[in-house]
Design brief:
By secondary structure, this protein is of the alpha/beta class. It is 35% helix and 23% strand. It has an 8-stranded mixed sheet with strand order 3-2-1-4-5-8-6-7.
Length: 256
């Protein structure tokens, strides 16, 4: 699910090759709800719900319909093995999932075939798609911004692929002392929710930094929400607290 390289291309990319190799080694475990990606499985319902609600509101769809995203072409950057792409496909979206890891894409294709879902998975980069002139109604950069080498360049690339009048949705980790305590020390070393080294705190991105990058890319941020874990309910939920995890949505002008 993390941005990087697949087939090599001339365009400059924002990949961190060490990150790509590390997540590629986990390809066989992506769909194990009790494996290394267990926290992502638990987080996924809140991600899917947030994306669905933002998209149906923006495009005037009926959220009550099972195919409420029908007719919309959505890009999932850093799709991994398709944990996010699959439920959005079930909601009717025409999904394109890209990931730099051939191993991740192979796992994604195999699982989609088992589920009888049609998803356009590609082992490539956002930069390659942008260079080819690909555009989408919605571009997703979920849990990926904190893994790229150049946030501004990556966001600019994402923004260039959003169709006029379309949306970009991003989710990442805030760079605060609280996030260091919870996302690094707590999640990786104490609770062991994710493998050690999954995140680098200095690569976390503050909301203002991400907002500036998005605005520079020609989009307007129209909403943002924090995401917190409720231990009593054993689930993630939306919150006004953006100190650790947060999501935001941005709109490109109709005449951009």
């Amino acid at each position: 699910m993390f941005q990087g390289v697949g087939p090599m291309n001339a365009a400059r990319d924002s990949v961190d090759h060490a990150e790509i190799e590390r997540f590629g080694r986990l390809a066989a475990t992506w769909w194990d709800p009790r494996g290394p990606m267990a926290p992502l499985h638990k987080l996924n319902p809140i991600r899917v719900g947030y994306i669905r609600d933002q998209v149906v509101d923006h495009f005037g769809r009926d959220a009550g319909k099972l195919d409420c995203l029908a007719g919309l072409r959505i890009l999932d950057i850093g799709c991994g093995a398709g944990i996010l792409s699959e439920p959005l496909t079930r909601l009717g979206a025409t999904m394109v999932g890209v990931d730099p890891s051939e191993e991740n894409i192979a796992a994604a294709r195999a699982h989609a075939e088992e589920q009888e879902l049609t998803i356009d998975y590609r082992a490539t980069t956002a930069e390659t798609l942008a260079a080819a002139g690909e555009t989408f109604d919605v571009v997703l950069a979920m849990e990926v911004v904190e893994h790229v080498l150049d946030v501004d360049e990556f966001v600019s690339t994402c923004g260039s692929m959003v169709k006029p009048g379309g949306l970009m949705v991003a989710a990442t980790l805030n760079r605060t002392l609280k996030s260091f305590a919870l996302a690094i020390v707590g999640a990786e070393y104490i609770l062991r929710w994710v493998p050690r080294g999954t995140h680098q705190w200095d690569k976390f991105v503050t909301p203002r930094e991400l907002e500036r990058a998005i605005e520079t890319a020609g989009l307007d941020v129209i909403g943002e929400r924090g995401v917190i874990f409720n231990p009593l309910a054993d689930r993630w939920q939306l919150s006004s607290d953006m100190d650790v995890n947060y999501m935001l949505v941005a709109r490109k002008g109709a005449h951009s």
